[in-house]
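Q: What structure does this chain adopt?
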Amino acid sequence: MGVVVSGDDRAVDSEAPDPVRASRARWARWGALGKRVGYGLVLLSIVAFAVGAAGEFTDPITTVVTLCLVGSVFTLAPGLVVGYAVKKAEREDPGPRRR
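A:
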């Protein structure tokens, strides 16, 4: 079970989850979500632009393209930065590596 008993009769669980790794996992999930939403918004803007290029660029189509591109900037860029930061922190961690 991974319980180690020290000299003063306190039990310490040696298999307790590492709070740093747990925090990195949370940040990695947020980064992945930001990338998913950001790339989805870019795709939606491309589709809306194609619809406008094939037909007529109306105000609603232009608004959708603009809002999707602006939204992607605010979700994709932070998602990419957080994702790379988590990967870099995992690489530099002196603990055991996961493969």
